[in-house]
Fold these 2 entries.
Entry 1:
Amino acid sequence: MKRIITTTVINQSGVLNRVTGLLMKRQFNIESISVGPTEQAGISKMTFVVNVEDERKLEQLLKQLQKQIDVLKVNDITDKAMVMRELALIKVVSSPAVRSEIYSITEPFRAAVIDMSKNVTTFQVTGEPEKIDALVDLLKPYGIKELTRSGVSAFVRETQKAPAPQQLSIL
Amino acid sequence: MRDAATQTIQKSGADILIESLKEQGVEMIFGYPGGAVLPIYDALYKNPIRHVLARHEQGAIHAAEGYARVSGKAGVVLATSGPGATNLVTGIADAMLDSLPLVVFTGQVATTVIGTDAFQEADIVSITQPITKHNYQVKNVEDLPRIIKEAFYIASTGRPGPVVVDIPKNIATGMSSAQVSEEVRLPGYQPTTNPNYLQIQKAVQVLAEAKRPLILAGAGVLAAKATSELVAFAEKYQIPVTNTLLGLGGIPGDHDLFLGMAGMHGTYTANTAICECDVLMNIGARFDDRLTGNLADFAPNAKVIHIDIDPAEIGKNVPTDIPIVADAQKALIALLEQPITGPDTTQWLQKLTHNKNSYPLQYSTANKQGILPQQAVQLIHRLTGGDAVITTDVGQHQMWTAQYYKFNNPHNWVTSGGLGTMGFGFPAAIGAQLAKPDEKVVAIVGDAGFQMTLQELSLLQELRLPVKVVIMNNQSLGMVRQWQETFYEERYSQSLLHVQPDFVKLAQAYEIDAYKVETLEDAEEVFRKAFESNEPALIDCRVLQLENVYPMVAPGKGLSEMIGVISK
């Protein structure tokens, strides 16, 4: 099952290595990862999308992450109300003949043109990964020259709809 | 008025390191010098902290592990960069798996050349990341006092483990006025030591209703110095106790409630008790696969209470009904404070006593000429009264020692459990003897494992410690040979050592008294003489090559499927 996990870490060199090394050592498969500084100086936040087999594996993952000295907080936010965004840059083959057709596809996705040449247009799109998947699928027939995705960034919404399901952690 | 900064004394990183070590109460360092740590060795030159010069970095770190295990204090290791540091890797991994507190200082090339593949450069921080509790590279000399303090704190609190501090050469020579004393502030590291009251109550309820409760006590009991509480608890409620390999000594080996070791080479009584118990109370053990056997068959009918200081161990291998994250001693004290009525274990204990009497550990001497390794261990036990510090490597000799040496004291058993490191036992014995100069220390090693670190005979010669090295010499990699006999149709691929050194002459080359024994009578005489002497000694004890360790749970099998169980 796919889980979205955020960790708050002390921003020291090697922390990302420490966390990804831990996941590798324990055989967890990372689908995406994004890291960046937070509003607090010296504190960074990582967002992982991880595939785990079952709840026990998930609990083990959370506990092993929590055990790291540089990790301050670990949260599995999958089941919470949250905002989740990914950025993708997509370079599409777009001869003048199909250009307006492509625009009509990208428009509902609110993708922005950020670079253009004679036969190639580069779009920027943000949203949940599924939305980006959908756009990529639609653009594929025209020929995608290059695609890069940022990995998911996420956090919980300020107001939760229902009480959050009980955390698995025993602490 | 002078500027405050010019008034403070500037010290080198190396001097700050030594001062911080003194502040931590470090009495000895196990190490080996080299280019990148010369500033630190220079600072040591004029200092009273004792340095023990092993002949290989692996020897130094295993000695530090032996020291840590019997003293309960962090072992301190110092090695140079590159090959010096990488030679420590086995010991670091060993300490990690057996939760031993170590603080390991490695030299590093100067920060100006890190990343250029400089002479003797190895990225030891990345190399040791998966096998340390935590590690550091010091980037500013000002950080040194804080990092050292944190390193000792992390290594020796919570679940103990090794911490590596990598010190570039220019940091050791760099000058700073940083003060030694500084509070440890680690917001991401706050081990839970006090048990949750509600969980303790749940445990008490489950125990009160139990008919066949069992305590599985691991090394966490020893690390928490909770042995007297363990015995008090077991006696108060008449609950039988089994130990993991590393937990041996947690309850006296001859205690009525003790069932012997559990696991792959555990006793029939202990393993069947695990299969039959209705409540299994694990205190400070991590349900290692050599203990559990096939998980599907492990304690199938039991409610599991798991007390561990490391929350990640709970539920990792065996689903737990009542998790208690706590220091073993604090958890046992909390349990002892609860009024419990019951359990009534009379029938259960009767059955276990019957099993103990009917299926004791035993071996056959019929049609066998020469010394059986089990006899040799029993002889060592008899002559030392069960009170000696015993160290071993991994393999057959280790299992025979675990089976037949009944440990009376909690801190007398030093063995490589999790990593199963050949070459561990002999240097560990030197470290143990340095920690406990007045106790008898016997290294029981295999002929193969001994050859992996025998250069430390030179250290033994230098220190003249009264360590006794007993080589259980079966001229083979015994456990490998046993597995090849059992699971590979007797194809002894590379497990028989047809060529060996003359161990007696070898020891004599190091000016160490040495003996070779081939009969039990000779063994008794030689062991007695050696154990009475205050000098080091080596005994090449020739044992039967084809003797196997039984009983056994074959790999992949469950604890109920033991082979080699003989009834009396």
Entry 2:
Amino acid sequence: MAKRLGVEVSIAVAEAAKQCNVDVISAYPITPQTHIVEHLSELVADGELDAEFIPVESEHTAMSTCVGASAAGARTFTATSSQGLALMVEILYIASALRLPVVMSMVNRALSGPISIWNDHCDLMLSRDTGWIQTVAENGQEAYDLIFHAYRVAEDHRVLLPVIVNLDGFTLSHVIEPIEYFDQAEVDSYLKPYVPAMRLDPKHPITMGPVGMPEVYTEARKAQEEAIKAARPVIAEAWQAFGDQFGRYYRAVESYQMDGAETVLITMGSIGETAMTAVDEMRSRGKKVGLLRIRLFRPFPVEELRKALKGVKRVGVIDRALPFGASGGPVAAEVRSALYHQTDRPFVYNYIAGLGGRDVTVENFEEMASELESLEKSELTEFYKIINVRE
Amino acid sequence: MAKETGAISWKELSLGTAILEPGSSSKLKTGDWRSMKPVTDRECCIKCGMCYIFCPDMVYSRDDEGYYVQNYYYCKGCGICAHECPKDCISMVEEGSNG
């Protein structure tokens, strides 16, 4: 039987990577991701995990090492945050273009400047278009669970794409939660050994990552787009198998109190748990408020959102990143875009909240929900509103 | 529909656009965008082979008489051979001219 332990979430994520029996870990420490790779380096040093731990001088090299090791046929893992991700981004595009199933946990943190070590989704959005599959955890157990799912999806020969498992910095990474650790036999049953579809082998030389001339670049990008679209059913299938094995079922979009909901909030990440409390309170006062939490950010769950928002009157999307000069936050822009061609679509408004570690409270969610009802009737001059900004 | 400009269907590309045939780059004519080409004056050439040594693209090879001759199929016209020739026997001439 699986056992439940009080453990720091970062340690649980590292234990998940260990249980996935990774071959190569290459990482550079950066707050708030450090504890994950620190613990993995201890596990390797203590002989508890038979893997190569390759310490490097930068995140750019950490990801380059993962790309090289994965190309050679190894199961690879790394983790990063914020500025580290920024330094790594160049190679994220390479990993996905080469179709290498690297898995990375990204402990979400704000980008400079001003310098901030605290949590928001700036880094998540910086990696938005890199071609990686991206899942988002809301609590510690999910951060642990999603690592197993990530490898199963990434290494599936119908997919072969890298996966980022996002978890909020400090809010999740540094708290101690009751985590249910799986028995190794259960993990081995869920996640089979990695069988590369192709790899670097001197006996059978191939070239990975050649130049794509104008006559082939468009086709290469189209092939990659089709690959991430084709991952949708595999992602769902791997969650179904996970639920059947471990008892927790995950979906691309999680619904909460959606029965008869007229006003719906959409969150991504750990603030979804605060939002659930807010929705409970509003429901107890008779307000028809529901909540959707985006679990799968890439590929974006367009169909799931359209289905879940059918018949809903108004939607408030909460973004945790502010793209300067854009027509709203990144999640809201995609939700609006997903709904645009629907004949019967809800009114969509956008709130920017929780930047650089600013708390998002139950009261904030209640204010958003009640403001949404009045906004609908007024004339809109802005695409979005920043919550809690002091004038 | 405008004329098709892609070289191959996206469905036929190998995984990650990997090249599966070793040494296939020898089939690529990589010198077709050259604007200047090196021409050797055999009257003054001393067959030292400096052009062969310095050429970054293996354009030069030795013929039966011991001269080093260019394979323009791969020459990009960088001019390193002309610069390094100790007797100044190699001149860079405009592509398409009769030099």
